[in-house]
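Q: what sequence does this backbone want?
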């Protein structure tokens, strides 16, 4: 099950569980702005493609909440 990480690894912007976010196959997580403008669709951690993170239905979040663990690596996101 996806962690649904709570923030962008580049700019630390909060990302709601159902908000627009981009992830790679390792679940590195970025806001749309950083993913497109700074990273050009490529994960700086693994080199994988950044794609739209699936949305978890609100009725499933109660029993399957999003992660609260923040990952912030601004050094890997230089434009």
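A:
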């Amino acid at each position: 099950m996806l962690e649904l990480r709570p923030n962008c690894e580049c700019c630390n912007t909060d990302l709601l569980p159902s908000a627009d976010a981009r992830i790679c196959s390792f679940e590195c997580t970025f806001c749309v702005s950083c993913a497109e403008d700074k990273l050009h669709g490529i994960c700086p951690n693994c080199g994988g493609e950044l794609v739209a993170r699936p949305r978890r239905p609100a009725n499933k979040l109660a029993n399957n909440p999003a992660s609260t663990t923040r990952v912030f690596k601004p050094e890997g996101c230089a434009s």
